[in-house]
């Protein structure tokens, strides 16, 4: 039996960042991760950071590589079939740029600092189980190399993503979930080609498309696809051809094609579990909520959850004060629901839904025209895209 102050389930960005911040506050933690480090680091996911996330990562000593390799940009472009695209300018409306910096690089940095500082990460921890969460001495059991181990702790942080064990360990009567599944997914590719240089969301009658980037020579592109799409039916040539069809000609001409180095399909989902706490278990990141990637909120929400949770745990251990622990779920959920609303609205506007009729399509077009013409409408979207400030 081992002991730690905080047992962290899941070594994705939320779990690793929490562990790093706790270490800076001299609070001991252990991460239990189901996969190997190599597996975690090869996952390609989010890439756009809000200014608040950038500042927070810098303050946590994680800014050097981000400032060197990240790409600061003034916001995102919205394109609509044959109409001229326009920029949702976060710099102009909120005074701050957005930053493209891949989740993979952030995770690599987090692993680097955790290993440098002697952080304890148990890889390939199987069959993790949580016990006595409602009491004052929770326990976590897991299997590793055929042996069962148990950890006693003061708190459990459930950072194990949507499919993890933490949320499922909460009794059904103590949690309420809210969900919207979308009738489509995103087919995405990564290619070592120069990006178009901007983040561009495009709506076309054939479906949504997104041009994004992870570095000066690394591009990320997505197209809306059916849920039954088979990746084998999408060789690179077909993907590039379809992608270009969905952007206005001037943008399509700037897309540099090349062999893909990764190709995957992500289903889209909106999901929230409330509250984000059960006894001494606190949920953070995708374990508690999922947003469709439209609007780039998933990773940013994981970061803000960790900000609130770490601050609360530090207040508990340092000052024997539980006020932030008591308010954790409410505070985190205010930001979560704002991001859920924003990504839902953006998803609705920019995607083609099977039930969209001519009326719905005209309404969406009118919304695009309004957004393009109205400075105050753009300011509102820019404010939400740049993200709400963290609450005191
Ligand atoms: C394919 C894909 C594309 C995405 N693209 C974007 C994007 O473009 N923009 C955006 O903002 N967001 C995107 N997201 C969302 C973003 O990546 C997530 O919000 C972010 O990863 C959340 O971090 P997390 O640490 O909470 O969860 P995760 O990254 O899911 O990490 C959870 C960790 O827990 C581990 N784990 C799971 N179960 C167990 C268990 N039982 N025991 C121990 N460990 C366990 C997992 O192996 C994983 O390492 C994408 C997500 C996916 C899946």
What do these coordinates show?
There is one protein chain. The chain has 392 residues and is an alpha+beta fold. Helices cover 37% and strands 31% of the residues. The protein has twelve helices and 19 strands. It has helices at residues 13-24, 37-42, 51-59, 64-69, 90-94, 103-116, 236-246, 249-252, 298-319, 323-350, 358-373, 375-386, and strands at residues 2-9, 29-32, 48-49, 71-73, 75-80, 83-89, 98-100, 120-122, 126-131, 139-144, 147-158, 176-191, 199-204, 207-215, 218-225, 260-274, 277-278, 281-283, 289-290. The strands form three sheets. Strands 1, 2, 8, 9, 10, 11, 17 and 18 form an eight-stranded mixed β-sheet that branches. Strands 6-5-13-14-15-12-16-19 form an eight-stranded mixed β-sheet. The chain is globular, with a radius of gyration of 21 Å. The mean pLDDT is 96.
Q: How helix-rich are the residues, as a percent range?
A: 25-40%
**Integer-rounded radius of gyration:** 21 Å
Shape: globular
> Average pLDDT, to the nearest integer?
96
- β-strand percent reads 25-35%
Distance between the termini: 37 Å
**Helix-strand makeup class:** alpha+beta
Low-confidence segments, ≥5 residues, pLDDT <50?
none
Heterogens? flavin-adenine dinucleotide
Major sheet: 8 strands, mixed
């Amino acid at each position: 039996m081992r002991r730690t102050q905080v047992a962290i389930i899941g070594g994705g960005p939320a779990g690793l960042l929490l562990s790093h911040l706790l270490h800076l506050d001299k609070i001991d933690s252990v991460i239990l991760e189901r996969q190997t480090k190599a597996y975690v680091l090869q996952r390609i996911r989010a890439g756009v950071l809000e200014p608040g996330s950038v500042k927070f990562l810098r303050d946590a000593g994680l800014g050097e590589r981000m400032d060197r390799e990240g790409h600061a940009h003034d916001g995102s472009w919205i394109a609509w079939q044959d109409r001229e695209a326009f920029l949702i300018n976060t710099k102009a409306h909120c005074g701050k740029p957005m930053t493209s910096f891949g989740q993979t690089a952030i995770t690599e940095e987090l692993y680097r600092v955790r290993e440098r500082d002697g952080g304890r990460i148990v890889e390939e921890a199987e069959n993790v189980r949580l016990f006595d969460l409602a009491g004052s001495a929770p326990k976590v059991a897991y299997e590793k190399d055929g042996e069962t181990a148990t950890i006693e702790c003061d708190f459990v942080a459930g950072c194990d993503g949507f499919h993890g064990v933490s949320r499922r360990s909460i009794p059904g009567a103590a949690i309420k979930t809210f969900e919207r599944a979308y009738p489509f997914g995103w087919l995405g590719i990564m290619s070592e080609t120069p990006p178009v240089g901007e983040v561009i969301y495009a709506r076309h009658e054939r479906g949504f498309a997104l041009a994004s980037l992870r570095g000066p020579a690394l591009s990320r592109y997505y197209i809306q696809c059916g849920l039954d799409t088979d990746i084998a039916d999408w060789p690179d040539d077909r993907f590039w051809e379809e992608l270009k069809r969905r952007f206005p000609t001037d943008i399509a001409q700037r897309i540099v094609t090349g062999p893909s180095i990764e190709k995957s399909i992500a289903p889209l989902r909106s999901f929230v579990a409330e509250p984000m706490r059960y006894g001494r278990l606190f949920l953070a990141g995708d374990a508690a909520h999922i947003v469709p990637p439209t609007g780039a909120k998933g990773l940013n929400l994981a970061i803000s959850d960790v900000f609130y949770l770490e601050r609360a745990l530090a207040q508990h251990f340092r000052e024997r004060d539980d006020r932030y622990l008591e308010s954790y779920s409410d505070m985190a959920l205010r930001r979560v629901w704002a991001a859920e609303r924003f990504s839902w609205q953006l998803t609705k506007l920019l995607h083609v839904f099977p039930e969209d009729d001519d009326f719905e399509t005209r309404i969406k077009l009118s919304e695009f025209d309004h957004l393009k013409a109205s400075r105050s409408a753009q300011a509102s979207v820019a404010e939400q895209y740049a993200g709400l400030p963290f609450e005191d």
